[in-house]
Amino acid sequence: MERARRGQSSSGGGHVDLSEIHSRLFDHRPIIQAEIRYFIKEFEEKRGFREQRGLAGVNSLIIKLNDQVLPQTHESMSSNIPSVLVKLEAAKQITNRIQQREQEEDQNDRLQANRERRKAEWEAFVIEQRRKSAEVDEEHVKAVEWLKEQYVRMEKDLAKFRTF
Q1: Each residue's pLDDT tens digit, 53-111
Q2: Burial call 21-45: b when 16+ CB within 10 Å, e when fewer
Q3: What is the pTM for the complete model shown?
Q4: What is the helix, strand, coil percentage profile of the chain, to 5?
Q5: The Cα angle at residue 155 between residues 153 and 158, in degrees rounded to 5
Q6: Residue 42 near residue 49, CB atoms below 8 Å
Q7: In terms of C-beta density within 10 A (0-12 exposed, 13-18 middle, 19 or more buried), how is residue 14 classed?
């Protein structure tokens, strides 16, 4: 009757019984799941104790730091900061002087380079002016010679007319 309620025939019932037997013999999931739950429970308990000890150690360290180290550090900093600030100001002034010297040297280098460039330009200008002056002098000498020759010719022509 029980088989009839399940809606199984008498021939199919043997198959269901075999599958139940097979699952009981070879399906270990329920056992494995129970072992996994037990392992997780044990792990969490041991871990919890370990973490609790670690947190207690950290807490005692923080209390020690707050009570002893922090006041000592604060006192040390309060007494040393003014001297450190004085030294930093001195270092700042030294670096400013070094930077100013470097800037002056750079400016002097630029000025020197500009002076040399202008000197070279001036020398080139003077040479060009001398060349042009020599050309003008040469043209002047040629013009004076031509004029002398012209006056000599004119005097000859005048001399011809005076003799008549």
Answers
A1: 888 888 898 888 888 888 888 888 889 999 999 999 999 999 999 999 999 999 999 99
A2: eeeeeeeeeeeeeeeeeeeeeeeee
A3: 0.36
A4: 95, 0, 5
A5: 110
A6: no
A7: exposed
